[in-house]
Design a protein that fits this description.
There is one protein chain. Among the domains are: 243 residues, Alpha-Beta Barrel (TIM Barrel), CATH 3.20.20.100; 164 residues, no CATH class. The protein is built from nine helices and 44 strands. The strands form four sheets. It has an 18-stranded parallel beta sheet that branches. A 16-stranded parallel beta sheet has the order 12-14-16-18-20-22-24-26-28-30-33-35-37-39-41-43, with no helix packed on it. It has an eight-stranded parallel beta barrel with strand order 3-4-5-6-7-8-9-10, surrounded by four helices. Helix 2 runs parallel beside helix 3.
Length: 687
């Protein structure tokens, strides 16, 4: 498979404007004759992008050279893509508009193809001077007006850092079409390029061959790579690397450089039982096919990032095991991995490896290990074999992941800070297990489809003051916080939130009709966690199905919204201060719903609404339980049974629709003090 990029290739920007991949930069070129000769030569040989800037003080020469070259080679001026840039001394709204007109006049054009803000700062200002940010805003507003007026066909920025780009999202109405920045293997700009990819900003590299000295061109590793390709130079290797990252490349012409593009043929099938080592970008864009009825191992590892970039891997279609090892910065990024049969092991070991990849596994056993920071993030996994295991061990691994599991058995382990955040898991068949620890799985979505069994465990093995500090002051999200769980009709779900601090905070759990749900919010042992399921939203089936909610942890289910039923013992608040301040609805099915508040100070200040379709039972057995709670009893013919067995329970209890209440104050005369309801009895029957 040949690379699709050559000197005539173009890339379509987010606004539809086409920009050549390959360009010519004019920095430091002030000799008029040399510049004219260089531009004529580069246009003659097919280059259609010329880059200049106000600060180069050569715009007038560039414009004239382009006109002469186009006339000589029968080209239209519009055939050449021209970029120029706003000088740092002209930052600000009015200054930018004036500077643009000056550049336009110097170039002898009535529009430019691309206009960039050259640097994020203002000449003469310190980097931390607030005036820089104000000037950037004004300059960008001017560029937006120039774009809308058609004077600049595309607009962008140059030398902006990730911070500057993030800042632009707050004030721009038009996102930059292009970011131009220095980029080469010694300065790969990983975070900036990822941001650009996510926001539709095209990344244009300059100084792809280094910054004027020979430090990069004579790098030992680079020269070793070039030696493997007879007739190729370090410059050619560097340009190939940049183009394989999907960048536009603007270079400065140097005498004797001999620049051409590397084009390789398809690597094709891997020999039987072979061990293939992909080094020096040799497997980028390739389709690697493993033979049937044999084992296959592919190693993507090198000191230069993006080994196996956009590589396709086809594992054996008949028997045979397949092993893919991505052990390099950004290795296997945007890879496409297919495992139709046999066992498949994919190991994403280095930081940012396997991002934006697609993995399809229908074989026997599939294992995906994501160990490096942010490895496997933004990827898509479709698995339909017998067993599937996903291990997300590194920080922020498996974020924004899309998983569709049709396996007989599927297990997903998310074990480190931020792992599996914002991911989606759809368990459509068989048994599916999810284990989330150490601030993982926040903002995720988990759906257990009809007929499946899902076992969800969100926990931290220990709890101490340091973890609480991280939650409050370091902006960490608790494990499974703000996560969406859906147990669809006919499925069985077990949810365990235990240990740690605020495990399952602000989580939504929906158990649909005819589903079976068990929800436990608890601590591992005394002083081993608190506030499990705090501020959660739990909805049990309306009439058919089985659903139980157990809040046995310290401060568990506080300030939560719980709609329970139709099981008889639908809600148990046995932890200290559990269900405190919560809003609870007891929905009746065939059985009378029973709510037990047995923990110390449990169910205080809560609001409890009983269904009008059956009797409901509220047992306030813990010390101080149900104090100042509000109970809304049924309005029909059904009764509301409230039992207060502790001398200090039910004090200040507020009861609505008292005609249907059956109040048992068996904890003594103080048990129901302040309820304003005459007790039905002071004796409670034995359970």
């Amino acid at each position: 498979m040949k690379m699709a990029v050559d000197i005539s290739s173009k890339f379509k920007l987010s606004n539809g404007k086409e920009m050549p991949y390959y360009g010519f930069g004019t920095y430091k070129m002030k000799d008029e004759q040399i510049l004219h000769n260089a531009i004529e030569f580069t246009i003659k040989n097919g280059t259609r992008l010329i880059d200049t800037a106000a600060v180069y003080h050569n715009e007038h020469m560039v414009g004239e050279a382009i006109r002469k070259a186009c006339s000589k080679y029968n080209l239209k001026l519009s055939d050449v893509f021209v970029t120029t840039k706003l000088d740092t001394g002209s930052q600000g709204y009015s200054n930018a508009l004036s500077a643009f007109e000056t550049s336009l006049q110097a170039l002898g054009k009535d529009y430019v193809d691309l206009y960039l803000i050259h640097w994020p700062g203002v000449r003469g200002k310190a980097r931390d001077d607030p005036a820089n940010a104000k000037a950037r805003r004004g300059s960008w507003r001017a560029l937006e007006e120039l774009y809308q007026a058609g004077k600049a066909k595309a607009i962008g920025v140059s030398n902006y850092t990730l911070k500057h780009l993030q800042e632009m999202l707050e004030y721009s109405t038009i996102k930059p079409h292009v970011l131009q920045s220095e980029c080469h293997p010694l300065l790969p700009q990983h975070d900036v390029r990822v941001f650009c990819a996510e926001h539709g900003i095209f990344f244009q590299a300059y100084s792809s061959l280094g910054t004027g000295d020979d430090k990069l061109m004579k790098h030992e590793k680079l020269m070793a790579i070039a030696s493997k390709y007879p007739g190729k130079t370090s410059a050619q290797i560097l340009l190939a690397w940049a183009l394989q990252q999907g960048m536009v490349v603007a270079i400065l012409a140097l005498a004797g450089m001999g620049v051409t593009l590397i084009v390789r043929s398809q690597k094709g099938a891997i020999p039987n039982g072979a061990l293939l080592d992909c080094e020096d970008a040799t497997c980028q864009y390739e389709q690697l096919v493993c033979p049937d009825r044999d084992n296959c191992t592919i190693n993507c590892k090198d000191i230069i990032p993006y080994t196996c970039f956009r590589t396709g891997v086809v594992c054996p279609s008949v028997l045979g095991d397949c092993n893919l090892n991505c052990d390099d910065l950004f290795a296997c990024t945007q890879a496409n991995i297919s495992c139709p049969q046999g066992n498949c092991n994919v190991n994403c070991l280095s930081d940012y490896s396997c991002r934006y990849s697609v993995m399809q596994c229908s074989g026997y056993d599939c294992l995906l290990s994501c160990m490096g920071q942010e490895s496997c993030s933004h990827s898509t996994i479709k698995s339909s074999g017998e067993n599937y295991l996903l291990d997300c061990e590194g920080q922020d691994t498996c974020t924004d992941l899309d998983i569709d599991s049709l396996n007989e058995s599927c297990r997903i382990n998310c074990h480190n800070d931020g792992s599996c955040s914002r991911s989606t898991l759809d368990c459509s068949n068989g048994n599916c297990s999810l284990y989330c620890t150490n601030f993982s799985c926040d903002y995720a979505t988990v759906r257990c489809s009809q007929g499946a069994f899902c076992d969800v465990n969100c926990n931290d093995s220990y709890y101490d003051i340091i973890w609480a500090y991280r939650y409050y002051y370091d902006d960490y999200s608790a494990t499974c916080s703000s996560t969406e769980f859906v147990c669809e009709q006919g499925s069985t779900c077990v949810f365990n939130f235990y240990g740690g601090y605020r495990i399952g905070y602000d989580t939504n759990i929906t158990c649909e009709e005819n589903s079976t749900c068990s929800i436990r919010c608890t601590e591992l042992s005394i002083y081993s966690g608190s506030h499990q399921c705090d501020s959660a939203n739990i909805i049990c089936p309306t009439s058919n199905g089985d659903c139980t909610v157990e809040c046995s942890g310290y401060n568990s289910c506080r300030s939560s919204r719980i709609t329970c039923g139709p099981s008889s013992d639908c809600l148990s608040c046995s932890g200290k201060w559990s269900c405190d301040g919560s809003t609870i609805t007891l929905r009746a099915g065939l059985n009378e719903p029973i709510m037990n508040c047995t923990g110390l100070s449990s169910c205080r200040y809560s609001t409890i609404t009983c269904s009008a379709k059956n009797n409901c039972n509220i047992n306030c057995d813990g010390q101080y339980s149900c104090i100042s709670a509000r109970v809304i009893c049924p309005t029909g013919d059904y009764s509301c049974n409230i039992r207060c067995t502790d001398p200090l329970s039910c004090q200040g209890l507020s009861i609505t629709n008292t005609h249907s209440v059956n109040l048992l104050c068996c904890g003594g005369p103080t048990a129901c003090a302040g309820t304003r309801v005459v007790p039905t009895s002071t004796d409670c029957p034995n359970d």
